[in-house]
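Bumping my old thread because nobody answered last time. Still need a sequence for this structure:
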């Protein structure tokens, strides 16, 4: 498959915000970007 289906790659990681502090729209946007909004910070 082409790169069209790959998750987008950016130079920096977005700030991690507690899921309880995000609106449902922000949670959906995070999933669309290929991030898991329920995952804790990477260690």
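Sorry it took so long. Here it is:
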């Amino acid at each position: 498959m082409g790169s069209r289906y790959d998750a987008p790659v950016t130079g920096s990681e977005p700030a991690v915000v507690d899921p309880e502090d995000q609106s449902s729209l922000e949670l959906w946007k995070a999933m669309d970007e290929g991030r898991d909004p329920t995952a804790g910070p990477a260690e």
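The chain has one helix and no strands. Let me know if any region looks off to you.
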